[in-house]
Amino acid sequence: MQAGWHSLLRRGGNLLRHSARLVPPSARAGTTTARARPRALSTVPALRSVSTAATPDLTRPQPGLVKASQGHDTLKVWWREGEPDEFPYIWLRDNCQCPACFLDTASSRVSRVTDIPPNARPKEVCVSEDGASLRVVWEDGHEGTYSASWLHERAFNPTQQSIHENFYKLQPELWDSDMFQRIPRASFDELMEDDAALLKLLESMEVLGFTVVSGARQEEGELHRLSKRVSYLVPSHYGTTFTVKSKADPSNPAYTGKYLDLHSDLVFLHYKPCVQLLHCITQFSGEGGDSILADSHRVAVQMRELHPQKFRFLTDVLVNFRDFATDEGFQFDIIARKPMISMKPDGEIDTVNITTTGRDSHFCVPPKDAVGWYDAYLTLCDLLYRPDNHFFYKLEAGEILIVDNLRILHGRTGYQAFDGERHVQGGYWDWDMMRSRRRVLQRQLRGSPSGV
Ligand code: OGA
Ligand code: ZN
Ligand code: ZN
């Protein structure tokens, strides 16, 4: 990441952005019904740095080329401002922008890499007089022109690459229980009408991993309405949406008044849904029915730093997750085998697979590994249920809780199921579609650091 591009404040173990841009002013302490348990005094280990989202500077002058010179296997270009860049010949040829190689209307390459002559080199390279483009004539006679701004955005230097990295994915800001004082909020009506409000929600989801939307109607169907603005609803074996109520012969423990531990939904699917929506249509009026929220990535990072050996058990031992039941006449037996903490190839946390109800009793490891794994899992639970790592929030009727199901664990305190009706409608969204929507809106509303 580029130095100076982002800055962080470290406060009480929290990593905070300088700018509170993503947290609307309505998310003030005391304006929500959230309550936090007293904070523990334990030290929270340092977390990895996070960076801010890219906000393109539209006032910046367009980059201009000065000259280009041919090296062994790269073309070196000088800009009016800044350091020169090198572009590999093979990359230039593979990304030729001429109409034979690139279909503009689809923003897609149509040339085949295997058709590029071996060791393709330019015969002639020429920068236009105004510095706005570069023309390359290749040894085989093929010709292509690249605009300076197109080349500049794709330069192989860390600054440009980090701009694209931030356009690709906004960096998460890991949080602790203090988050209950600045719960990110959005208004249903604004989301339906205002693209800027929608962009803010999508950014907040990527950075903080959850949002409370208020002002939805107190009836089923609002998730479908909202989804038209954001992403399609991803169906599961519980339907496109599902009704969370206390039911006779429940097909899922969520359909009772029991306490639901902090969990991620549908862990037993190999394609675990990315984002969960819980629309509170009627809330339980007595004690209970509160949502519980925790940032599992923060807890996993703590686990790695405080208990590295136990952490390895959770990343290496495969656990069986299973959903074996019948819902509305449909019988299923779904099994996925995964570690409790899955890692990305770059060593970052990918997702935390915690579910009390969906973890199977089959455990296909030697007994001593099972013993070690339970020890590690219980240590993870100690961290997770430490008061500074989770908070409670009781949804009001008409509120929709949206959580990143790959990162934020959710739960629910128990309630007396038959004392009153509690009615929640659930559904899932897909991260690819949500990020796509964020990029499209980002480009429309603010310009983009990365044109296609
Ligand atoms: C669920 C769930 C929470 C609630 O259905 O998966 O976590 O508030 N429900 O009922
Ligand atoms: Zn071409
Ligand atoms: Zn759930």
How does this structure look, described?
The protein has 452 residues and is α+β, with helices and mostly antiparallel strands. The chain has two domains: 321 residues, 4-Layer Sandwich (Double-stranded beta-helix); 104 residues, NE0471 N-terminal domain-like (2-Layer Sandwich). The protein is built from ten helices and 24 strands. The strands form eight sheets. A six-stranded mixed sheet has the order 11-12-22-15-24-13. Strand 17 and strand 18 form a beta hairpin. The longest helix is centred in the last third of the chain and has 18 residues. The site of one zinc ion has 4 residues, from loops. The site of N-oxalylglycine (OGA) has 10 residues, from strand 23 and strand 24.
- Give Rg in angstroms: 26 Å
**How many domain units?**
2
| Share of residues in helices | 10-25%
Strand content: 25-35%
- Strand order, largest beta sheet: 11-12-22-15-24-13
CATH fold category name of the largest domain: Double-stranded beta-helix
Topology:
Layout: E1 8-11, E2 14-17, E3 65-70, E4 74-79, E5 85-88, H1 89-94, E6 102-103, E7 108-109, E8 122-127, E9 133-138, E10 143-147, H2 148-153, H3 158-168, E11 185-187, H4 188-193, H5 195-207, E12 210-214, H6 222-227, E13 241-244, E14 260-263, E15 275-282, E16 291-295, H7 296-306, H8 308-316, E17 319-327, E18 330-338, E19 341-343, E20 349-352, H9 367-384, E21 390-393, E22 400-404, E23 408-412, E24 423-429, H10 431-446
Helix pairs in contact: 5-10, 7-8, 7-9, 8-9
The structure holds N-oxalylglycine and zinc ion (2 copies).
Structure summary:
The chain has ten helices and 24 strands.
